[in-house]
Structure formats: structure tokens, C-alpha cells
Amino acid sequence: MAEELSRQLEDILSTYCRESLSDDASALPNGQSHTSELNGLSGERGHDKPDKVNGGDNSNEKEQKKSHEKKKVKGLGELEIRTAYCLLLWNIKTQRLLLAPPVITVFCVGKEITLLMQTLNTLSTPEEKLAGLCKKYAELLEEHRNTQKQMRVLQKKQSQLVQEKDNLRNEHSKAILARSKLESLCRELQRHNRTLKEEGMQRTRLEEEKRKEVTSHFQMTLNDIQAQMEQHNERNASLRQENTELGEKLKKLYEQYKLREEHIDKVVKHKDLQQQLVDAKLHQAQELLKESEERHDREKDFLLKEAVESQRMCELMKQQEVHLKQQLSLYTEKFEEFQTTLSKSNEVFTTFKQEMEKMTKKIKKLEKETAMYRSRWESSNKALLEMADEKAVRDRDFEALQGKVQRLEKLRRALKVERNELNKKVQTLSGPQGVSTGPPGSDPGTDSPSPPPTDSLLEPGSDQTALWISGLYVMEGLTCVLQQQSENLHSHTHTHTHTHTHTHTHTHRQQLQLKSGQSEESGDQ
To answer: Where is the composition biased (Basic residues) (predicted)?
Structure first.
């Protein structure tokens, strides 16, 4: 509405101004505008003064004055119209006033002009009229300036309001876009909800069908499981009976094993006692050997002192030679008896081997039975490990015995060398008598010395013969020990295939044999 009113007002003013301008153009000869005349009011005063000075009363001058007055009135009317127009535009744009129709505003302006013309007509002189018009013009100028200032302020406010309006329009457009987007999203959500509902219904149907299938399958499996449980119960009952029978068998075997262990413990205790006895005998033999060494040293000194009596001793030694030969024959008979005992021991070994083969057959049968019981295998494995440890210990003992044998060999050689030296000394002392009076069976050209007589064994000076005889006993003991060690090693290789009890008994038997051999050696010494 405000825009339409402003357009109508502009049209009316433009038509009114055109009419006034056409009238002025017809009145003015030079075609000057009303604005130039309005702006040059002060110049007209200068024109009026020379007229007064001249004092001319010509009619042309009067007509010119009248035309000037008309022009002034018209110029004032145009200015007032323009100011009113500006005021109206400002009221329309800022305050949005409800204006009266443009015809009424033009009528008011014309009414003011008529009032101004009436006031001017009341004045008598044109100078007074000019002064009144100047005052009116000054007032209008001030009002015009004030209105321009107000118009600038209002234009700023208008620009701000326009910006706010644009912002509000943009926000409104954004809100509309957002609303349209939200509506589209709501529609999509509704569609999505519908699709989800349909999918949920389909899924529930499928799940119900699957549940029915699963329940039927579960029922079938339950029936199968029940049938299998019945079968397993029957099988478990039979297995329980078998387990009870096997438990009874195991108890019997355990009792037998306990009895065997008790027997083995008794045997071990007996062997320990024998070992203690053998150790005591060995200690005693060592003490005797030390005493014999000391005695040997003393007798050596005594022999050096008794070198003068060597001739008499030579005759006695000849007699002792005969006695020693008799002893040698006895020792050969003992050696043959020892060989017979060895052959008997070999026969015993063969019988023991046959028994071992029988036992291996029995063990094979037992292995078939004990295949179900792996626990026994673990115990036997532990026993084998212990046997391996025992074998390592025995190997160490065997190495120690070998060292002892080597030492005894060295001792035997040293004793033999000493015996040869003593025989040489005896021969040198006896001289040609010993050579001529030698036994019929001896060869004077041989280097082998004759053994000492047997009677000197009981005398304090018979240390050479005692050493010689002890060397023979040591050699016999060493041969026995070596044979026993070879047999022990041979039997030890077979023991790995037998049970733990047989290995213990066999090893204890070997230890007893060794101890008996050592005791025999110590007794002979």
C-alpha cells in the first residue's frame, strides 16, 4: 500500500510541476527557470534600488514587477511542494503511516499557497512582501535542513532495517528449507519404519519356523542321546565289573610286590652286614700290610747285618726249595680246583641264562597284560633310570677297581724286581758252593732265581719268601676279580631287559661275590 501511495503522489506532483513550468516558460522571454529566480531573490533587491533611484513610473516596469512576484509565488509553491513531498516520502518509508489520498495533500498545499498569497496581498509595499517571503524562505530552509538531517538519520535506520529485513528473509528462507528437509526426512523415516516393521514381521515368521525346526531337531537328538545313554549304561556296568576284577588282580600283584620288596630289603640288610664285615677285614688287612712293610724295613737292615750268616742260610734255603715245590704242587691242585669251580659257575650261569629266557617269555606275556596299565610303565621307566644311575656308579667303581688292579700290577712288578735282586745277592753271597750244590732239576746256566725255602717263612728273616707268596696270592685274586668283573659286565648288559627286582638281586649277588673274593684275598694274605 505504501509503495502504491508513493507512486500516485509522485505522478501527481510531476503533473503539477510540469504545468507550472509550462506557465513560467510562456511568461519568461529568456526561458529562465523558476529555481534561478528563487535562488536570486537577494539580487532582485539590487534591481529594485536603482528603480527607486531612477524613480521611473513606466508601465513596463510595473508589468515586470508583477511577473516577478508571480514567479516568486510560483517558486515558493514549488519549494513547499517539494518539501511536502520529501516529508511524505519519509513518513511512508519509516513510520509506515496511513496516508490520505494524494488529492487531499495537494489540496492542502494549494490552500497554504492561497493563505500565503492572501497574507502577501495584505501587505502594501512590495518590500514588505519581499521581507515576508524571505522570512518564510529562511524558515523553510531551516526546516529543509532539519528534515535533511532527519532524513539522513532515517536513511541509516532504513538501511539497518533493510539489512535486518534481508537477514530475516534469509533466516526465513533457511527455516523454510530446513522445514522442507525435515518434512522429507520425516517421510523417509516413516517409509523406513514401515520397511523395518515389514522386515521384523518376516524375521519373526522365519524365526518361528526355525524355532519349530530346532525344537523338532532337539527332540530327535534328545531321543538319540537317551538311547545312547542306555547303551553306555550297559557298557559302563560291564566295564565296572571288569574294573573290579582288575582291581582285585592289582591288589594281589601289589601284595606280591610288597612281599618281594620285604624280601629284597632283608637281603640288602644282610648284604650291608657282610659289607661291614668285609670292610673291617680289609681295614685289618691294611694294618697288617703296614706292619709287614715296617717289618720288611727292619728285616732289610737285619739282612745287611747278617750277611756273614748267608752260607748257613743257603743250605737252609735249599731245603726250603724242596718244600716250596711241594707247596707249588699244592697250589696247582688248588688252581685246578678253582678252574673246576669256574666251570661249575659257568654251568650255573648257563642255567641262569635259561631261567632268564623263561623269564623273558613270562615277561612278554605280562607285557601284553600290562599294556592297559601305563602307570606301571612309568614306574618301570623310573626304575630303569635308577638302574642307569647304578650302572654309572658301577662303571665308576669298575674304573676305580681297574686303577687298583694297575697299582697292584705295578706293586707285583716291583716285588718281582726286588725278589730277583735278592736272589742275585744270595747267589753272589753263596758263590760257587751254591752253583755246585744246586738241586738236580735246576739248570746252572739259567738266570731265573730259586725261590726261598719254606722253613724261613716261620723265621724272622724269611720276608722274601713271604712277599713272593703274597704276590702269587695277589695275582690269583686279581685274575678272579677280573673274571668276575667281566661276568658282571656281561650280566649287567642283560639286566636292562629284566624287572627291577631281578636287577637288584643280581647286583647284590655280584657284590657278594666281589666281597667274598676280597675276603678270601685278605684271608690268604
So the answer is: 491-509
C-alpha distances in Å from residue 342, one per residue of 24, 252, 346, 436: 179, 40, 6, 44
Is residue 452 within 8 A of residue 317, CB to CB? The reply is yes
- In-domain check, residue 442: yes
Instruction: Kindly list the distances between the CA atom of residue 367 and the CA atoms of 353, 359, 389, 498, in Å, as whole numbers in the listed order.
Output: 20, 12, 24, 12
Instruction: Using a cut of 0.85, tell me whether the model's pTM lies above it.
Output: no
Smallest CA-to-CA distance from 468 within 321, 334, 305, 338 is with 321
Segment (H or E) for 84: helix 59-90
For residue 55, the 8-state DSSP code is: T
Alpha-carbon gap, residue 389 to 396, rounded angstroms: 11
- Domain end, chosen from 74, 104, 122, is at 122
* Position 71 in a domain: yes
Number of H helices, E strands in the chain: 11, 0
Domain boundary among 122, 141, 170: 122
Residue 336 falls inside a structural domain: yes
Is the domain of 303 the same as that of 450? Answer: yes
Of 26 and 431, which is predicted with more confidence?
431
Per the structure, the complete domain to which residue 70 belongs is given by 2-122
Q: Are residues 118 and 253 both part of a single domain? A: no
Counting the structural domains of the chain, the total is 2
Instruction: Please check whether residue 462 is in contact with residue 456, taking contact to mean a CB–CB distance below 8 angstroms.
Output: yes
CA 438 to chain CA centroid, nearest Å: 97
What would the pLDDT profile of 442-453 be if each residue is shown by its tens digit?
Answer: 443 333 444 444
Return the residue matching grid coordinates 513606466: 58
pLDDT tens per residue, range 44-98: 333 443 333 344 445 566 566 555 555 544 444 444 445 545 555 555 444 443 3
Across 281-307, average pLDDT = 83
- d(C-alpha 210, C-alpha 219), whole Å: 14
Measure the CA–CA gap between 484 and 494, rounded to whole angstroms.
Answer: 15
- Specify burial of residue 481 (Cβ count, 10 A radius: 0-12, 13-18, 19+): buried
Please give the Cα distance from 510 to 488 (Å, whole number). 7
Going by C-beta distance under 8 Å and a sequence separation of 6 or more, which residues neighbour residue 225? none
User: Does residue 118 sit in the same domain as residue 250?
Assistant: no
**Is residue 144, in this structure, part of any structural domain at all?**
no
Q: Look-up: residue for cell 487531499?
A: 104
